[in-house]
């Protein structure tokens, strides 16, 4: 079909419809009848350009989880719903999505957004898909970023070449980011990135995440 304009929007089932539209595929503007705040970990409003969690309220936002008072208390604060999404806003009030809060890697007091590193990872000609997640470093006593990748047809096939490719990919990313964002956990090759039937990456199924989950149960 021709002559039809399309656009993107982002929303939550808890708000009953999309919460903000995407007029230029980069910035987000809030829908009518919806209010938003960007807050820090103490639920204080952040300044322009600073990342924080988005909270929303409005007439279409749900009020509670049925028969789950714990989840309700964790989700709501003074009538505002915590979305779990990390965003920042500019001086014109446009909202920019950074990542999901639960996916942020906490390295020595810094917060590292996996999506930023993944964007750099997948720009390397050897990388088909890339996923960044947290790995626990016992010696440092903190989370560190590490990456899993699948390779393109341009990557070497022999074992030595693949090891060199891993080193090249790691240095490629580390040269482009601040010190605290470096892939201190290294890069590992997977034959396939685990995903849902709809194509959503299953971060919880990454080997390092499975190992951390098993350790937590011991």
Automatic annotation (TrEMBL):
GO molecular function: CoA-ligase activity
Coiled-coil ranges from the UniProt annotation: none
Lineage top rank: taxon: Eukaryota
Biological source species: Neocucurbitaria cava
Residue ranges of domain AMP-binding enzyme C-terminal in the record: 116-200
This protein's UniProt keywords: Ligase
Family to which the UniProt record says this protein belongs: Belongs to the ATP-dependent AMP-binding enzyme family.
Keyword presence, Hydrolase: no
Name of protein: AMP-binding enzyme C-terminal domain-containing protein
């Amino acid at each position: 079909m021709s002559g039809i304009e399309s656009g993107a929007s982002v929303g939550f089932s808890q708000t009953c419809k999309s919460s903000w539209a995407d007029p230029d595929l980069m910035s987000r503007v809030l829908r009518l009848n919806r209010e938003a705040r960007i807050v820090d970990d103490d639920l204080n409003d952040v300044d322009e350009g600073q990342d924080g969690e988005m909270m929303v309220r409005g007439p279409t936002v749900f009020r509670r989880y049925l028969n789950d008072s714990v989840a309700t208390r964790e989700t709501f604060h003074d009538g505002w719903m915590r979305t779990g999404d990390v965003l920042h806003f500019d001086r014109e009030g446009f909202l920019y999505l950074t990542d999901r809060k639960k996916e942020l890697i906490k390295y020595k007091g810094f917060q590292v957004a996996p999506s930023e590193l993944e964007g750099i990872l997948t720009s390397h000609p050897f990388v088909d898909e890339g996923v960044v997640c947290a790995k626990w470093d016992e010696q440092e006593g903190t989370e560190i970023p590490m990456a899993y990748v699948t390779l393109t047809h341009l990557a070497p096939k022999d074992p030595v070449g693949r090891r060199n490719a891993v080193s090249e990919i790691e240095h490629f990313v580390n040269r482009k980011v601040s010190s605290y964002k470096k892939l201190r956990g290294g890069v590992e090759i997977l034959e396939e990135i685990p995903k849902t039937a709809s194509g959503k990456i299953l971060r919880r199924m990454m080997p390092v995440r499975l190992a951390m989950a098993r350790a937590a149960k011991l």
